């Protein structure tokens, strides 16, 4: 009879403090990760704890730094500790271990904090290129994942990162109504002007034929990114492909559902149905590459303690 070992044993993690840190990351990922946690279970057991640490840190940073001063202070502390190899809290300790094992540069962490600052200080974007700059920063988790996925070609990192970017842009379309309630509009204002749609109409929930054409156009852009990223799935080691295929299929099905609803993402019934849509795993909370904190979303007490 085969005895199942702890995945941390498979990863060669035996030191008690580090094991406890990774177990904390696993608990947070399972509780808040949704699609990300489910997809990670399709990776080899030795890699799953490292995905847990990447996600848990993104959650920790997003939920702990709720203003620009706090975000930059946390960024300075974390980046200095990672450079020195002296992490002061369990989540950063697990992240430090993962980054050293897989050769993930500290610059990726700095990039993620840039996205947090943009989310706090920028209420809208003029062009799609400006939006992509924000999305690229906030989807850096996908770039951090590249070494774990073991790319087989030179262009695999760009394609995997583009897949993460497509995930984030899918969230932008899906969460349009929720973001408007928070005073944010991620759709480029140049696109609104091109289709004759105003922000006032969006905030009032007005869905004209022009609005539907706008959403159709944005989905077309996202699907183009998925098509570019698709080759990246085949450009990683075979054991990593089910994870990427599953996440990509789930996010593409979100776009399918929006199209089936005639692009009426401002309709409260459609928005509610999309927001409740989860992978078949017992979890709740944020999306894997869209960790923006929402109004009324509880901040886990543990994260408050760690950020103090």
TrEMBL record:
Pfam families the UniProt entry points to: SQS_PSY (PF00494)
Q: Which SUPFAM superfamilies match?
A: Terpenoid synthases
Database matches in InterPro entries? Isoprenoid_synthase_dom_sf, Squ/phyt_synthse
| Domain of life of the native organism | Bacteria
Note the PANTHER family from the entry. BIFUNCTIONAL LYCOPENE CYCLASE/PHYTOENE SYNTHASE
Protein name, please? Phytoene/squalene synthase family protein
């Amino acid at each position: 009879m085969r005895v199942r070992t702890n995945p941390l044993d498979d990863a060669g993690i035996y030191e008690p403090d580090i094991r406890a840190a990774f177990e904390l990351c696993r608990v947070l990922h399972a509780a808040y990760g949704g699609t990300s946690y489910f997809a990670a279970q399709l990776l080899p057991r030795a890699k799953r704890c490292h995905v847990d640490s990447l996600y848990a840190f993104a959650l920790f940073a997003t939920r702990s730094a709720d203003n620009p001063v706090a975000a930059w202070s946390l960024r300075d502390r974390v980046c200095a500790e990672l450079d020195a190899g002296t992490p002061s809290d369990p989540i950063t300790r697990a992240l430090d271990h993962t980054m050293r094992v897989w050769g993930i540069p500290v610059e990726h962490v700095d990039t993620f904090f840039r996205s947090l600052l943009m989310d706090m200080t920028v209420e809208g974007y003029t062009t799609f290129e400006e939006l992509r700059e924000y999305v690229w920063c906030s989807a850096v988790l996908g770039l951090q994942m590249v070494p774990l996925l073991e790319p087989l070609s030179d262009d695999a990192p760009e394609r995997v990162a583009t897949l993460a970017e497509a995930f984030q842009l899918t969230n932008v379309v899906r969460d349009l109504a929720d973001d408007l309630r928070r005073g944010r509009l991620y759709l480029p204002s140049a696109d609104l002007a091109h289709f004759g749609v105003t922000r006032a109409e969006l905030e009032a929930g007005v869905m004209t034929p022009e609005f539907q054409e706008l959403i159709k156009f944005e989905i077309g852009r996202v699907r183009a990114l998925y098509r570019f990223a698709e080759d990246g799935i085949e450009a990683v080691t075979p054991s990593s492909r089910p994870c990427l295929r599953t996440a990509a299929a789930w996010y593409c099905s979100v776009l399918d559902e929006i199209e089936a609803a005639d692009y009426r993402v401002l309709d409260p019934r459609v928005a509610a149905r999309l927001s409740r849509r989860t992978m078949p795993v017992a979890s709740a909370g944020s999306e894997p590459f869209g960790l923006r904190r929402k109004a009324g979303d509880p901040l886990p007490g543990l994260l408050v303690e760690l950020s103090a």
